[in-house]
Amino acid sequence: MLSIAKLQCQRQLHHFNYSLEVNPGEVVALLGASGSGKSTLLELIAGFIPASAGDLNWQGESLLALPIAQRPVTSLFQQHNLFHHLSLQQNIALGLSKKLKLNAKQQKQMMQIAEQLGIASILNKRPDQVSGGQQQRAALARCLVQNRPILLLDEPFSALDPMLRLECLELVKQLAEQYQLAVLMVTHQWQDALRVAQRVAFVEQGQTQQFASVEQLQQAPANPHIAHYLACS
Ligand SMILES: Nc1ncnc2c1ncn2[C@@H]1O[C@H](COP(=O)(O)OP(=O)(O)OP(=O)(O)O)[C@@H](O)[C@H]1O
Prior knowledge:
This protein has 8 helices and 10 strands. The chain is an alpha/beta fold. It has a domain at 84-147. Strands 6-7-8-3-9-10 form a 6-stranded mixed beta sheet, with helices on both faces. The chain has a 4-stranded antiparallel beta sheet with strand order 2-1-4-5, covered by helices on one side. The radius of gyration is 18 Å and the shape is globular. The chain starts with a strand and ends with a helix. The model has no long low-confidence stretch (mean pLDDT 93). Adenosine-5'-triphosphate is lined by residues 11-12, 14, 32, 34-40. Pfam families: ABC_tran. This is Thiamine import ATP-binding protein ThiQ. GO terms for molecular function: ATP binding. Residues 2-230 form the ABC transporter domain.
């Protein structure tokens, strides 16, 4: 389990304090207004910024002392996930080898994942030759080939058209179950959370104000701001 307990940091005048957990195979949605501190939590987990206090554990072991490269974490962002001068295949291979040299086992795993994500036939194309959805699938494939159990998603599909977005969300849910990934997904869309997440952490002014199942959040939002946000998103 990914366990986050009073995990804190300071950014300029803002103080952040987060508590939540994510089980393997589960998707937890991070919701909250712009600037509330959702991306900051992902940066703390990935190790891009240091924590000032609190706990960040994976399967009972603290991640806090681990450098970025050794954390069991991969991330997918809204954009800038791919190198545009490389093919999709090379971009995915980068997840495994900086020199793009894969052994037979790695090559096989990459092809299996590419097939599952529906991009096997376009692996030789560059990102600017494929659609936004295909680009995000390739970026997701690069995350998956790394075999790291924590997947952080920062609004990865919000630039896609609604149908594609839903398809990609379904895919994430399916992949979380299949690979037993603990997925933490930032979204502004309550509908996305309803579709894909079992639990939701609502972030307000740098704090996880409410961490609950989607049903609980819907039925008993902790304060009027949360109720208003859900009604509007
Ligand atoms: N690199 C940074 N240095 C200093 N402060 C930052 C930095 N990045 C973000 N902040 C501040 O931290 C606060 C939280 O930002 P964060 O990006 O985590 O919010 P968010 O909820 O992800 O917002 P959005 O939904 O708009 O992406 C904001 O007030 C922001 O100005």
